[in-house]
Design a protein that fits this description.
The protein is 34% helix and 14% strand. The chain contains 12 helices and 12 strands.
């Protein structure tokens, strides 16, 4: 089997995607975590191979025997991974997940999603959603651990999964209160209850406004750093349907993977013809201008993901009828795995680890 170096991502969501891919491949893997030099921006953006953007100890840790495959994401890791491929004499293949900053031709494979607007190429796999670690086993484990705490709540369970500000979109008190009222109405009409979870990106103001607006039976989890106290996997396993704030592609990916109905909540400005009072954020206004007039590589357009999900029947907007899920030839992960394994038709191990 091919041997992998996972050059670790420096954002939690990206780390989760990389681990999901490596876990699904099942090939020998070593995780390499790098330390980056401050204020070294130019190196990250050059389409060359270089270790100038990482500190000396990190650079010295990258040496032969070289892996068959290096997997990573993030602009800081691009020149490092290209350097590894060059140092191996072209032996090592390089797979990048998510946004790319160089041309697709400088990678062996790119696995991405619509919001990054990566140009089409033979070595680009464009999935609807990001890779994830949702499995029937993890859902069952989460359900078994947390369901006893919700025995007094009536079913069906509508899960409300809450993100935060994202690019031009702002999840402030106005949007949060609207979410609480709409979700409560759905719970009352169904005779059920809500399982509500905020996230690390949910502001305190939005969290308070949401909690105050809930007037149906509910369980409410305000996010905290204690991972053992986080009921997220229990909610994924127990929910009968989902309401997800549409700012989070990762949470949409994970909820869609459960196979249960998913409804996207528009926090404001996410689709044409839907006008609501929006929360103001200066950064959001500037980002909106960047998407419209700036360098495309600097921004992402998550509305492209929303359109794909609706078109493929994988999610619907809250307030609209649920769509019938269209059968896909492959799931997002299956497409990714097929492309990765296509780089290694012989699947032989020619390198090892220290």
């Amino acid at each position: 089997m091919p041997v992998i170096w996972l050059i670790d991502a420096y954002r939690a969501g990206e780390r989760s995607q990389l681990r999901a891919l490596v876990q699904a491949l099942g090939w020998p893997c070593e995780i390499r975590q790098l330390n980056y030099r401050k204020y070294n921006i130019i190196t990250h953006l050059l389409p060359t191979g270089s270790v100038a953007g990482i500190d000396r100890a990190s650079a010295e840790s990258l040496h032969a025997p070289w892996p068959d495959l290096v997997i990573s994401c993030g602009v800081r890791n691009e020149p490092v991974c290209r350097w590894i491929r060059q140092a191996s004499g072209g032996h090592t293949r390089y797979i990048h997940v998510g946004r790319i900053w160089a041309a697709p031709s400088l990678f062996d494979l790119v696995i991405t999603t619509p919001q990054y607007r990566v140009p089409s190429a033979a070595n680009v796999v464009r999935n609807d959603l990001t890779l994830h670690q949702v499995t029937p086993q993890k859902l069952q484990e989460g359900f078994s651990q947390w369901a006893p705490q919700w025995l007094d709540l009536p079913r069906p369970f509508t899960a409300v999964i809450v993100g935060g500000d994202s690019g031009p979109f702002t999840l402030g008190p106005k949007a949060a209160a609207r979410l609480g009222l709409e979700a409560s109405e759905i719970a009352r009409k169904s005779g059920g209850s809500l399982l509500v979870s905020t996230s690390s990106r949910t502001s305190k103001e939005a969290s308070l406004a949401l909690h105050n607006a809930l007037d149906a039976p509910h369980y409410y989890y305000p996010w905290g750093p204690d991972r053992d106290a986080n009921p997220y996997w229990g909610i994924l396993g127990a929910a009968d349907n989902f309401i997800v704030t549409a700012d989070s592609i990762g949470m949409l990916s994970e909820t869609c993977a459960t196979g249960k109905p998913v409804f996207m909540f528009d926090i404001g400005g996410m689709r044409k013809g839907y006008e609501v009072e929006r929360d103001f954020r200066l950064g959001g206004t500037l980002f909106e201008a960047l998407i419209r007039w700036g360098w495309q590589a600097l921004s992402r357009d998550i509305t492209l993901v929303h359109k794909k999900l609706v078109a493929h029947g994988r999610a619907a907007w809250l307030g609209e009828a649920a769509l019938s899920l269209q059968d896909e030839e492959d799931t997002d992960m299956e497409r990714a795995l097929k492309a990765v394994k296509g780089l290694f038709p012989q699947a032989t191990v020619t390198a090892g680890f220290d």
